[in-house]
């Protein structure tokens, strides 16, 4: 598959997607969202890929937001469609993937860019990264899930401060608030994200897929029941046989 605005690199059991619109600081226009959606669908079905990394091209920006030029003349109906379509075809899709998506935030993650990182299961950032939801400076609010995911990740108080003030926070502050897990130098960011991806890729994909589903339900009343049902379901799946047998036979599992 040929893409114009993203590149895909496969290495063993991982795939790295790089958003590549440096002239617009990797802003998400409709085509980029569609390409990401298509690439992720294919990767979700591909059992050879166990972990996906998502990053931006260059050393300045992960994603500087939704493409402001593209939606500048939209009316309410068009804006609703844009937000709904984006949430359904990309942001919620990432969260619901059956394999982990790690965001390697290599610079600005603003507006839709931070929303994209927040839809991923794990976030690492480079020390020059700046993260924020500046939509109110445009007379808007986040439209790709930012009001919901930021509040869940850092709590309502800090989310409100970030959204109302539109201020960007540093990578270190993002780690302090739990918005990103770890901060590395620009050079170390991708290698460290890949190191984590290799550790994850050696574990049971069936277990991880069920864990994603259960953790995604952690802020609903259905979470505990989902965990029980996933736990039970795994007892009749091949990975549990292999994992438990490997432990009993004192060897490494081969999933
Ligand atoms: N959209 C389109 N183009 C952009 C964007 C963007 N979000 N961000 C940067 N660019 C373009 C600039 O226009 C510029 O292009 P050109 O050279 O043709 O003028 C190029 O990228 C380089 O940018 P700058 O010259 O501005 O670079 P600086 O280093 O001076 O500044 C900043 C970097 C601070 C990141 C600055 O570019 C900036 O403030 N960008 C906009 C950030 C922003 O407001 N993001 C939020 C956008 S709104 C949003 O994401 C809503 C999400 C929900 C949508 C729901 C459906 C609608």
Written overview of the protein:
- Helices cover 49% and strands 16% of the residues.
- The chain has helices spanning 30-45, 68-71, 76-95, 112-119, 146-154, 156-165, 171-177, 186-201, 205-216, 223-234, 238-248, and strands spanning 6-11, 14-19, 51-56, 61-63, 101-105, 108-110, 122-126, 130-132, 169-170, 182-184.
- It has 2 domains: 6-201, 2-enoyl-CoA Hydratase, Chain A, domain 1 (Alpha-Beta Complex), CATH 3.90.226.10; 205-248.
- With 255 residues, the chain is an alpha/beta fold.
- The protein binds octanoyl-coenzyme A (CO8).
- Octanoyl-coenzyme A is lined by residues 24-25, 27, 64-69, 71, 79, 82-83, 86, 108, 110-112, 134-135, 138, 142-144.
Give structural attributes.
globular, four-stranded mixed beta sheet, binds octanoyl-coenzyme A, 255 residues, 16% strand, six-stranded mixed beta sheet, 2-enoyl-CoA Hydratase, Chain A, domain 1, alpha/beta, 2 domains
Q: How would the blueprint of this fold be written?
A:
Elements: E1 6-11, E2 14-19, H1 30-45, E3 51-56, E4 61-63, H2 68-71, H3 76-95, E5 101-105, E6 108-110, H4 112-119, E7 122-126, E8 130-132, H5 146-154, H6 156-165, E9 169-170, H7 171-177, E10 182-184, H8 186-201, H9 205-216, H10 223-234, H11 238-248
Parallel strand pairs: 2-3, 3-5, 4-6, 5-7, 6-8, 7-10
Antiparallel strand pairs: 1-2, 8-9
The structure holds octanoyl-coenzyme A (CO8).
Residues 24-25, 27, 64-69, 71, 79, 82-83, 86, 108, 110-112, 134-135, 138, 142-144 line the site of octanoyl-coenzyme A.
